[in-house]
Design a protein that fits this description.
Elements (H helix, E strand, L loop, with lengths): L8 H15 L7 E5 L2 H9 L3 E6 L2 E6 L2
Antiparallel strand pairs: 1-3, 2-3
Length: 65
């Protein structure tokens, strides 16, 4: 409620119900890959992976199976 800036809990509950309706069947599994070079990162992005974060000077990517 605070994060969304709502003053009334009913507004927040609407967002929760929408989220549950849209994503209740969505799988939480991902295929994860790490890119240590720009060329490897480019290939992952072209293959449909999304950038997640940097870790130990490498870029982490993920996509749904």
């Amino acid at each position: 409620m605070q994060y969304l800036g709502h003053r009334n809990i009913k507004n927040t509950l609407v967002y929760i119900q929408i989220e549950e309706a849209l994503f209740k069947h969505e799988n939480e599994d991902f295929i994860c890959k790490i890119a240590s070079t720009v060329d490897k990162a480019k290939k992952l992005i072209e293959a449909g992976y999304e950038y997640v974060c940097d870790f130990d000077s490498q870029k982490m990517f993920r996509k749904r199976p």
